[in-house]
UniProtKB/TrEMBL annotation, chains A, B:
<dbReference type="InterPro" id="IPR036513">
    <property type="entry name" value="STAS_dom_sf"/>
</dbReference>
<protein>
    <submittedName>
        <fullName>RsbT antagonist protein RsbS</fullName>
    </submittedName>
</protein>
<dbReference type="InterPro" id="IPR002645">
    <property type="entry name" value="STAS_dom"/>
</dbReference>
<feature type="domain" description="STAS">
    <location>
        <begin position="2"/>
        <end position="113"/>
    </location>
</feature>
<dbReference type="InterPro" id="IPR051932">
    <property type="entry name" value="Bact_StressResp_Reg"/>
</dbReference>
<dbReference type="Pfam" id="PF01740">
    <property type="entry name" value="STAS"/>
</dbReference>
Length: 119, 119
């Protein structure tokens, strides 16, 4: 698979990361996402990582980068669906994902962004 | 990757298919999705296939099955994000996905399900 789909939900973009990230895929995602934020006038980005059993420093850095880019483009980023084991690993690795907001799931992430929690 | 994540958005479940489906993964998805429809009392299921360049008869049958199972559990299924080339292939293969509703994207799919289009 060569690119990760970006789904538009109102003023929000949703990215679900399911596959192992590598350099090129991460670059493509950053390009696509920044383009879509501008094109769709998005106010928020939700990154769902519920399918990931492991978040290493590469993915951590990519998420930080995406959040920083989105911020400059006036969109907030919320990381959702983190598995308990991933949270443990992140802290143990010293990757605290500063500057990235987190929420338990997509519903809560939407509410956090103030863009229509639906339940 | 062993399972496809199912995201809850209000009364709706969203499944993004990004990886090549095989028998076991399809079975797991059917199990997970039916369980989640009951557990989350979902009224609708959105299946996003925007990442798929190809939908063969196996995936077509899986989508039909999921829609039929969801229907019995009182949830509607809408297939969203189909690429133009996929539509062409489906018709050429004679796979018309009868019984499955389609929408251009997630936003329109949500509106079709009457569960909060957000734009």
């Amino acid at each position: 698979m060569e690119r990760i789909p970006i789904l538009k939900m109102g003023k929000l973009l949703l990215v679900t990361i399911q596959v192992d990230m590598h350099d090129r895929l991460a670059m493509t995602l950053q390009d696509d996402l920044t383009t879509r934020i501008v094109k769709d006038r998005a106010k928020g980005v939700l990154i769902d990582i519920s399918a990931l059993d492991l978040v290493d420093s590469f993915i951590g850095r990519m998420i930080n980068n995406i959040a920083a880019m989105a911020k400059i483009l006036d969109a907030d980023t919320v990381l959702v669906g983190m598995q308990p084991a991933v949270a443990i690993t992140l802290v143990e690795l010293g990757l605290t994902l500063e500057g990235v907001k987190t929420a338990l799931n997509v519903d809560r992430g939407m509410k956090m962004l103030g863009l229509g929690g639906m339940s």
